[in-house]
């Protein structure tokens, strides 16, 4: 995904980052040690080959001159905090952070390196796998919980039919677990089948209040997906066109029709 938020760096800068994170003895020769991972929508990410032939992943925050939405400010700090919390408090598989740098000495933004997960992206391989009253409803949320919010197929890494890693935690925060992206399909079928996600959360169906909250969250998500295509400078209209259709469907849930 092309986006102006992707803060790409030269091979020389990438080598300097490796030296700072792992020491000069791990700096590789040549310019073929870095491969951009293109599936992300916000930060630029590289798969780096170190001199000892091991692989790590480098993520770099957007350039400071690029305007982002309010909730995206400081997203990398959020991701680092989320990764630490998940590793300390749960058994959920997430990559270990090897080094983080907020000094801006080597580039104009925060960056960190983490373990590379040698697995398939579920969002890519999934098609090849077998199928194994509005204000009152918000008042029902009385205890905030840790929420990933961006937990969807393309942020899940799988190997041999097993989840081996969860990636991209920069949108994590404390709130209503029902806002998690996996619940979107309970209201908008275009997001896929939510059966497995509901089962994983220990739910079989949503109450009327939960249904209404999820409709509000769907509207919120769709508006973000539309707005971000403009400021990120997307080079095609695929996401906008898809999200614009979902906006019509989301508004219909509230009895609003075009």
TrEMBL record:
One of its GO terms (molecular function) is transferase activity. Residues 144-205 form the Aminoglycoside phosphotransferase domain. Keywords: Transferase. SUPFAM superfamilies: Protein kinase-like (PK-like). The keyword Secreted does not apply. This is Aminoglycoside phosphotransferase. It comes from Actinoplanes friuliensis DSM 7358.
């Amino acid at each position: 995904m092309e986006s102006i938020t992707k803060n790409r760096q030269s091979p020389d800068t990438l080598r300097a980052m490796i030296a700072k994170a792992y020491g000069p003895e791990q700096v590789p020769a040549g310019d073929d040690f870095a491969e951009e991972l293109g599936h992300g929508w916000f930060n630029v990410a590289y798969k780096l080959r170190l001199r000892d032939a091991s692989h790590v992943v480098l993520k770099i925050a957007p350039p400071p001159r690029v305007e982002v939405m309010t909730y995206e400010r400081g997203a990398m700090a959020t991701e680092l905090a989320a990764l630490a919390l998940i590793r300390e408090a749960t058994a959920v598989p997430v990559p270990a952070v090897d080094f983080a740098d907020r000094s801006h000495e080597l580039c104009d933004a925060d960056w960190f390196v983490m373990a590379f997960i040698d697995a398939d992206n579920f969002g890519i391989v999934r098609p090849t796998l077998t199928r194994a009253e509005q204000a009152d409803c918000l008042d029902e949320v009385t205890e905030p919980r840790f929420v990933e919010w961006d937990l969807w197929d393309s942020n899940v890494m799988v190997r041999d039919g097993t989840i081996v890693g969860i990636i991209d935690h920069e949108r994590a925060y404390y709130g209503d677990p029902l806002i998690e992206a996996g619940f979107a399909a309970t209201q908008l079928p275009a997001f896929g089948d939510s059966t497995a996600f509901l089962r994983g959360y220990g739910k079989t169906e949503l109450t009327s209040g939960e249904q209404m909250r999820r409709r509000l969250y769907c509207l919120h998500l769709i508006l973000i997906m539309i707005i971000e295509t403009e400021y990120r400078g997307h080079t095609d209209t695929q996401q906008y066109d898809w999200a614009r259709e979902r906006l019509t469907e989301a508004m219909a849930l509230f009895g609003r029709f075009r």
